[in-house]
From TrEMBL:
E2 component of the 2-oxoglutarate dehydrogenase (OGDH) complex which catalyzes the second step in the conversion of 2-oxoglutarate to succinyl-CoA and CO(2). Forms a 24-polypeptide structural core with octahedral symmetry. Part of the 2-oxoglutarate dehydrogenase (OGDH) complex composed of E1 (2-oxoglutarate dehydrogenase), E2 (dihydrolipoamide succinyltransferase) and E3 (dihydrolipoamide dehydrogenase); the complex contains multiple copies of the three enzymatic components (E1, E2 and E3). It catalyses: N(6)-[(R)-dihydrolipoyl]-L-lysyl-[protein] + succinyl-CoA = N(6)-[(R)-S(8)-succinyldihydrolipoyl]-L-lysyl-[protein] + CoA. It comes from Paremcibacter congregatus. Its EC number is 2.3.1.-. GO terms for cellular component: cytoplasm. This is Dihydrolipoamide acetyltransferase component of pyruvate dehydrogenase complex. Keywords: Acyltransferase, Lipoyl, Transferase. InterPro entries: 2-oxoA_DH_lipoyl-BS, 2-oxoacid_DH_actylTfrase, 2-oxoacid_DH_E2_comp, Biotin_lipoyl, CAT-like_dom_sf, E3-bd_dom_sf, PSBD, Single_hybrid_motif. Residues 3-78 form the Lipoyl-binding domain. Its cofactor is (R)-lipoate. Gene3D superfamilies: 2.40.50.100, Chloramphenicol acetyltransferase-like domain, E3-binding domain. Residues 93-109 have a biased composition (Basic and acidic residues).
Length: 423
């Protein structure tokens, strides 16, 4: 038998380190070739590392949340044959080096004084423990005992009975009260527990990205209401008359279309800003990030090259990449490269939101929920209209408030006159 050292391989695109997102095996497991071993998270995606060999796992280096550099030994296998121990590094590099101060500084242990005799404290009298009542069990007690328990505000299910079959007597009730075991009906117990949850994996990436955005980008927010009555009528008509294979349209593809047209007029909002180089990069193509809630947290799958798609293709691609994101199947390419982001919480979208810009983008379009509201039409007529707010944020360093407002007003106009979306 030999040993096989499995090092973190090159994950591509110049990545030099990655985070352990999940371990699928443990020491002692017998694994087969291609069996999933470890999920590694990079800045863009989670990569599943399969076992390179058949064998038994002797050791695993690292735990979820730890960073590992490319080339670091991660798993040692016991395998048939010679293995690759001869080519493995003599000593595995460690992901975290000890500081000199923490290495081997020993201080003499203080001489402990002989403990002084301590008078034994009287053992506190604990309330008698109640027997665990079975579900649906009714404590055995006489009517008089029940009446007294009710008057004393005591839950009889908590009182241990000393009689036959656990029957509760007056004396049991007295003992329970004397021991401090009075429990009020319906009383709430104070909760004092604290659960510590490590922020690792995707959650840590989300935290870092949000912190970067809020720390470095001066957000300018703009909210406008949009009458979507006409676009809703058009959407319902198109859904009722769609051809086989065409997806059912939500409001989002129409908003994507309106945003696409708006960015053609205001290209400064379809850009990235590199603060270190003082450089704005405007893009000819429009790659729409769709903020998506997944079981692992917020992700932004990308509908690439929206400028060449019609509304059906845009809806189909949006559903494909967002489903891939929710199911953990999205590739690095599908999760990167957006030039502007749309975020929507659908029916729980609230009235107003303050979306955080997806760094290094400079614009994010937030969609609030659609609600019927009475509106004044033509100056005097009141109608119930389908209304929706757009809550959007812009990087005020490179997008002026006037330009941002013009973009949103353009999107509003396009949605209120939906025929213009197809002109």
């Amino acid at each position: 038998m030999g040993q096989y050292y499995f090092n973190l391989p090159d994950l591509g695109e110049g990545i030099v380190e990655a985070e352990i997102a999940a371990l699928h095996v443990q020491v002692g497991d017998i694994v087969t070739e291609d069996q999933p071993l470890i999920d590694m998270m990079t800045d863009k995606a989670t990569v599943e590392l399969p076992s390179p060999v058949d064998g038994k796992i002797l050791s695993i280096s690292g735990q979820p949340g730890e960073m590992v550099t490319v080339g670091t030994p991660m798993v040692v296998f016991e395998v048939e044959g010679a293995g690759n121990a001869d080519t493995a590094p003599a000593e595995a590099p460690k992901t975290e080096e000890k500081t000199p101060e923490a290495a081997e500084v020993k201080t003499p242990e203080p001489v402990k004084a002989a403990p002084a005799p301590v008078a034994a404290k009287p053992k506190p009298v604990s309330p008698p423990k109640a027997p665990k009542a079975k579900t649906g069990d009714k404590p055995l007690a006489s009517p008089a005992v029940r009446k007294r328990a009710l008057e004393e505000n005591i839950d009889l299910s908590q009182v241990p009975g000393s009689g036959p079959a656990g029957r509760i007597s007056h004396q049991d009730l007295d003992d329970f009260i004397a021991a401090g075991g009075r429990i009020s009906h319906g009383a709430k117990k104070a909760r004092t527990g604290v659960e510590e949850i490590p922020v690792i994996g995707i959650r840590r990436k989300i935290a870092q990205q949000m912190e970067l955005s809020k720390r470095s980008i001066p957000h300018y927010s703009y909210v406008e209401e949009v009458d979507v009555t006409e676009v809703e009528k058009l959407r319902n008509f198109m859904n009722a008359n769609r051809e086989e294979g065409q997806p059912k349209l939500s409001i989002l593809p129409f908003i994507m279309m309106a945003t696409l047209k708006g960015l053609e007029k205001f290209p400064e909002c379809n850009a990235h800003y590199d603060a270190e180089q003082s450089m704005v990069r405007r893009f000819d193509g429009v790659h729409l990030g769709i903020a998506t809630q997944t079981p692992n947290g917020l992700m932004v799958p990308v509908v690439s090259h929206a400028e060449v798609r019609d509304i059906w293709d845009m809806a189909t691609e949006m559903m494909r990449v967002t489903s891939a994101g929710r199911e953990g199947r999205a590739s690095r390419e599908e999760l990167s490269g957006s030039t502007v982001t749309i975020t929507s919480l659908g029916k729980i979208g609230g009235i107003v939101t303050t979306p955080v810009i997806n760094h290094p983008e400079v614009s994010i379009i937030g969609v609030n929920k659609i609600v019927p509201r009475p509106m004044v039409i033509n100056g005097s007529e009141i109608q119930i209209r389908q209304m929706m707010n757009l809550s959007s944020s812009f990087d005020h360093r490179v997008v002026d408030g006037f330009v941002a407002a013009e973009l949103i007003q353009f999107i509003k106009g396009a949605l209120e006159q939906p025929a213009t979306l197809f002109m």
